[in-house]
Description:
GO molecular function, one term: monooxygenase activity
Strand order of the largest sheet: 3-2-1-7-19
InterPro entries: FAD-bind_Monooxygenase_sf (IPR051209), FAD/NAD-bd_sf (IPR036188), Flavin_mOase-like (IPR020946)
CATH architecture of the largest domain: 3-Layer(bba) Sandwich
Number of domains: 3
Helix content: 25-40%
CATH class of the largest domain: Alpha Beta
Enzyme class: oxidoreductase
Largest sheet: 5 strands, parallel
Keywords: FAD, Flavoprotein, Monooxygenase, Oxidoreductase
Number of helices: 20
CATH topology of the largest domain: FAD/NAD(P)-binding domain
Shape: globular
Bound molecules: NADP nicotinamide-adenine-dinucleotide phosphate
Protein name: Flavin-containing monooxygenase
CATH superfamily of the largest domain: FAD/NAD(P)-binding domain
Amino acid sequence: xxxxxxxxxxxxxxxxxxxxxxxxxxxxxxxxxxxxxxxxxxxxxxxxxxxxxxxxxxxxxxxxxxxxxxxxxxxxxxxxxxxxxxxxxxxxxxxxxxxxxxxxxxxxxxxxxxxxxxxxxxxxxxxxxxxxxxxxxxxxxxxxxxxxxxxxxxxxxxxxxxxxxxxxxxxxxxxxxxxxxxxxxxxxxxxxxxxxxxxxxxxxxxxxxxxxxxxxxxxxxxxxxxxxxxxxxxxxxxxxxxxxxxxxxxxxxxxxxxxxxxxxxxxxxxxxxxxxxxxxxxxxxxxxxxxxxxxxxxxxxxxxxxxxxxxxxxxxxxxxxxxxxxxxxxxxxxxxxxxxxxxxxxxxxxxxxxxxxxxxxxxxxxxxxxxxxxxxxxxxxxxxxxxxxxxxxxxxxxxxxxxxxxxxxxxxxxxxxxxxxxxxxxxxxxxxxxxxxxxxxxxxxxxxxxxxxxxxxxxxxxxxxxxxxxxxxxxxxxxxxxxxxxxxxxxxxxxxxxxxxxxxxxxxxxxxxxxxxxxxxxxxxxxxxxxxxxxxxxxxxxxxxxxxxxxxxxxxxxxxxxxxxxxxxxxxxxxxxxxxxxxxxxxxxxxxxxxxxxxxxxxxxxxxxxxxxxxxxxxxxxxxxxxxxxxxxxx
Length: 635
Ligand code: NAP
């Protein structure tokens, strides 16, 4: 709810110093209906987040602030009023084009969907009681994380009965399980949120774990989804019955018993990063002290004064090491592969007071702000990770733009470690930017590594002993070992047994190499839909919540078509699935993560990239708008 403006000019002026100016103009123009607030000479020249304020010159910034002050002052003084109700959708394309440039033409439908003036344009446009009121159609969703909650909400909106089965005692998935100190998302808060439920008042530019968990909990409560969740219940097996075209889902109940649920469709929303991966290191069982995985943090264990060993320097370690380094007696970090660091000075910053004030007082500003962030991530860093086949330096960089990125990021590391050549040598990755997840950095990692009580070890671990970790250069005694060794991302849908048509076994079919059509459907497994399935992870562009929204839209469209046409099930055609996967594989081979030989969770044991989506967000959005029923056998 927008608050009335009561503040004096000088307070508004101060707030405007914190404003992101291009989307503010868009919001003011939308709220007042005055196109004069979008003059040609104030069109931003870029949406690149590395170029502040859309490339405005200082004089242009002053002009925008003056325009905004005049408008907000006029509203405060009653000389102008903001329009009531939703903004005019017909104005959206012009305003969107003003912000995102003429090239945005193709992206406009997607961008408008993301910042729609209506409350929830992506809500299903059908209801079961209209399409097939008497038909029994129940859906089982596996998992109550961000994706499963969304799927439940959408089914509820369509009037389709559903049950969510969740192994944990609460919602939130990864945001429930990962509670290590310093845990936060590395995608902007205004993007890492449902498009129809943005949060005007995010406390930080990048939300912390507790804030996100609270967001998902409140979503589950507010939408009524929580009431449909069976907590503490784990899916053991799901089996498709060829005769009835229905699924039998066997679950373990909280009391240890088993129960059968029946469903006409199953949606797996178990995610890719839900099963901690422990390394195989000789002697792991010999260690005398406590040890735990970062996703199973032992909060009861006080690390103050302890000798702590951390294995791994991925996204998780990167966040908790600076936190625990402050109190640990000593901290030894075992790094196998250095991460690239993306400079993000405001990574830990609270949202500036002035910006929060504007979100509260300018109708639609937070939406246009989201649009602005979104426009910069539609393609994101993809152009810089595309492989140039003529480029001959594959393990350093994959193209001229990638090499430029490398030079910039190396310069950043040189700046961070200027006073510590020993750490600098260890910090410069020997693989191309984009081959692994780049980590957002505001300097706290380097500061932690430079502490007197912290040691970075790059010698390979040879074994774990009863009193610590040994490498070729010696023994490192430890009281506690923390495994920050990531997740078994390639083990999609493990350890469930999933049996499809004619007794087909999903894991046998995959044989460690999971594939699906659009990441969602698999031949021989009718009416089984996967969310955050194979090849739907993004490395350098966008937010994974965007993918979940595309997936729920597509799944709901499929289910709507079944109910409308009186069919029982959709089964992906083998040839459609194969051609799609060939296209995905070919594209992934032309990305930095596909050609580099560096370790990463983006490749499965066979070396195939089974996780990543190699294209723009727009391409996934387009492919998931309207299911082509010809892609499916209709049962
Ligand atoms: P990860 O990126 O897979 O990192 C695992 C770390 O453990 C790597 O440094 C890896 O080294 C090391 N490792 C594994 N086995 C080892 C062994 N035997 N010996 C020595 N080192 C070993 O896992 P993660 O940090 O948990 O992150 C996983 C993903 O979760 C991220 O990429 C991101 O998508 C997501 N995540 C996001 C955030 C965020 O939003 N900020 C935070 C946490 C996680 P190698 O690199 O050599 O394999």
